[in-house]
Amino acid sequence: MDLLLQLVANGLVLGAFYALSALGLTLVFGLMRVVNFAHGELYVIGGLFGWALTVVFGWNYFLALVVVVIALGILGYLIDQVLVARVRGQGEEPTILLTIGLSIFIANTALLIVGTTPVTVASPFASKPLFLGPVVITQARLVLVVICAVLIGAANLLIQKTTLGRAMRATFQDPMAAQLVGIRTPRIYGFTFALGATLAGAAGMLLGSIYVVEASTGGIISLKAFVVVILGGMGSFAGAVAGGLILGLTEALWGGYVSTGYVDAIGFALVIVTLLVRPYGLFSRRAERA
Amino acid sequence: MYLRKSLVLGLLPLLLPALAYAEDTVKIGVIQPLTGSVAYNGTTDVNGIKLALGEINAKGGVLGKKVELVIEDGQCKPANTVNAAEKLTQRDKVVALIGAFCSSATAAVMPVAQSAKVPLVTGVSSAANLTEKGNTWFFRATETDALLAKSFAKILVNQLKLKKVAYIGVNDDFGRGGVEEFEKQMSALGATTVMKEYFEHGTSDYYTLLTKLKASGADGAFVAVETQDGSTFVKQKAELGLSTKVFGVGSWATADFMQLAGPASNGIYAAVPYASTMKTPKNEAFVKAYQDQYKVAPGKYSAAGYNTLNIVVDAIARAQSTDSGKVREALLKTDYEGPNGHFHFDEKGQATGFTVVLVQLENGVPVVVESNTVEK
């Protein structure tokens, strides 16, 4: 019983981290139809930048977080306006090739600048064990789960309740009509990509304080984020959260009771089964637009 | 027209020394993973090689010529590594090859070395079967999992009183080989296996594995992983408040490992073919030179790189020739003293005679607990 409780706790924490890692990806796909293969590399930039500020320059953690969030937002906006805008409206293949190229470029630039040594972001939260009955967790992880929840909630509010969010949704539903009512759609695309990059970078900096970050981390992050997003349904916020928790719990229980050797494979098995039963993911309400 | 002429004239001085240089050097090919997930370890190996190169050339090189390295990135992928080896042997005409880190990549290069008749020396690849393939051009200047297990199983079982052991390894040749060899040797001495698990390289969350370790009731865990995975593993072990003893094989006794793991690395044991605290005059000189150049203490792979280039150049010097057949003959008669002891090769190309140590990590220092000479 103790084993089960601890595994469930591990799985839920891991799931929250997966959800946060995948949020930016699902947002950019849902609103822009851009499958961003450089998502994991934006996470790496966030982690490495966070490390540079907190460890190399000794900044305060929260100040560094704010700077990382703003910097990634600007970077995301520029990536969209300079690169993605060139292939907008030409179907999905050019954007896929573009983002794959971008991911290789970012990973190798990071390797050139930071080198091959893995790094950890300095965090003010304690990593000593807290014993909650039979379950052990750390303060750092609890705080991170709360920050994840806040970020996910805030992003959701932004999209559902604000004028900018309404403009984003309008642009997604019908770009032509949105333009007719005065929405500057190219800018909206830029903001959406910026928001996606910000969420990826924030995830990188937050999780970079409990895991290690290195130039090649992006691949595995993108992989997990894709599993989460496909499970939950491309473009669905609730789906990303549910997909993250399902993946985290499945990995923890499978690892705990069967074998940790093929934990990464279990995510893909889940995706295949889900796609067989619900081709658009668990939470996607609409059928795919052409 | 004028522009083109001046361009050619301008470039000539740049080209000439390059041409002259190419004829006056002894070229040695190096294939290591410099990008991708093993890049970190491959880079420390190359750092060791470059330190040896500096020392050799400062003493005038070999056969009156400077030694030149041609370094290729094999990424530890067999296909890329083979391409690199073909380029080095066909186009660069290297005298010898050093590489290719991961056992699977080295195995892929071995036939290339054989058909090009170029000696291939590895300081890292530890899969036992490499020296059993009957490839006379292949040499291994390091331990195998079996040799390491034979040296340490007795100490772990008898001196550290391990009765119930959990085996954990990264899911590749290195991790599986280490786990299987140690399990075999330790079981023969009376230890029982209470858990055996593998995980993928690059895993960041070990809570499931650690929860299982706690539930298994093991009094010691044998862990075969490299720096990144190992440091995260011991950090998260401390987060969960686990007191199980940990014994590692892999690059554990390195400055980077202890820095990444922080206080969580205290008390960890590691069985390694090299530690910067080994007390030999050769090692003290090596550590000082390495620290001067890279501002960090050398690890297992730095020593491996340093040894392999020295062994190759020593063979060329004794052969008095860059003819690869003669270099191979000379390699078989190697008697090289490195920071971690003497190296001789047997007829299969496996090195013996060097020292392996069991260290305990204490506040960032790998303290040598026991040392053993690797016998046949």
Please provide a written account of the structure.
The complex is a heterodimer of chains A (290) and B (376). Chain A has 290 residues and is mainly α. Chain A has 11 helices and 2 strands. Chain A has helices at residues 2-32, 39-56, 61-83, 92-114, 139-161, 163-173, 175-180, 185-207, 218-232, 237-257, 263-277, and strands spanning 129-132, 135-138. By secondary structure, chain B is α/β, with parallel strands linked by helices. Chain B is built from 12 helices and 14 strands. Chain B has helices at 2-23, 39-58, 78-90, 103-116, 145-159, 173-188, 207-216, 227-239, 255-261, 281-294, 300-319, 324-332, and strands at 25-32, 66-73, 96-99, 120-122, 138-140, 164-170, 192-199, 220-224, 245-249, 269-272, 336-338, 341-345, 351-362, 365-373. Chain A binds chain B through residues 2-3, 6-7, 10-11, 13-14, 17, 108, 111, 115-118, 120, 127-129, 131, 136, 138, 141, 207, 211-212, 214-217, 220, 251-252, 255-256, 259-261, 263-264, and chain B through 34-37, 39-40, 42-43, 171, 197-200, 202-205, 207-209, 211-212, 214-215, 227-228, 231-232, 235, 238-241, 256, 260.
Describe the secondary-structure layout:
The complex is a heterodimer of chains A (290) and B (376).
Chain A: H1 2-32, H2 39-56, H3 61-83, H4 92-114, E1 129-132, E2 135-138, H5 139-161, H6 163-173, H7 175-180, H8 185-207, H9 218-232, H10 237-257, H11 263-277
Antiparallel strand pairs in A: 1-2
Chain B: H1 2-23, E1 25-32, H2 39-58, E2 66-73, H3 78-90, E3 96-99, H4 103-116, E4 120-122, E5 138-140, H5 145-159, E6 164-170, H6 173-188, E7 192-199, H7 207-216, E8 220-224, H8 227-239, E9 245-249, H9 255-261, E10 269-272, H10 281-294, H11 300-319, H12 324-332, E11 336-338, E12 341-345, E13 351-362, E14 365-373
Parallel strand pairs in B: 1-2, 1-3, 3-4, 4-5, 6-7, 6-8, 8-9, 9-10
Antiparallel strand pairs in B: 10-13, 11-12, 12-13, 13-14
Helix pairs in contact in B: 2-11, 3-4, 5-6, 8-9, 11-12
